[in-house]
Amino acid sequence: MASDPLVQGALSSVTVRGRKLKVGKTLKAVPDEVEPLERRLSARVPRVKITDLLLEVNAWTHFTGAFLNLHSGKGAERHDHLLTAILADGLNLGLTKMAEASPDPGVTARRLMYLADWFIRPDSYAAGLAELVNFQSKLPLAAL
Q1: Where does the record place the Tn3 transposase DDE domain (predicted)?
Q2: Residue ranges of domains in the chain
Q3: pTM of the entire structure?
Q4: Which pLDDT tens digits describe the chain residue by residue (144 residues)?
């Protein structure tokens, strides 16, 4: 226990006194000179909705083909709705809140619950991830 950096006080801005742990302010890791460059670069990158990005990635990879109906084995009719349910799961937002946040009137909590119950499972995520990794591994950038 003596080699524990926390006990030795080797961690900056972290102290232990008795049974109390105190975490102080962290030091700024990025120099101030970087901020103007960051703003310029950020202005050059287009703003993209995450749902549009997911649809574009799916158009390249067809990873939603891994999310099959548990009973019929068929894919979802609306990939945009399936991606909305997946996004709700990934953001830990909840299906009801995601439905409320969606501009698409067809995206209801009931619809998302159906998709989550019948299409979204750990094995579906694993197969979808495999599709994404396989696609990425074939890109020229992956060879670098």
Answers
A1: 52-143
A2: 50-143
A3: 0.71
A4: 556 666 665 676 777 778 888 888 877 778 888 889 999 999 999 999 898 999 999 999 999 999 999 999 999 999 999 999 999 999 999 999 999 999 999 999 999 999 999 999 999 999 999 999 999 999 998 777
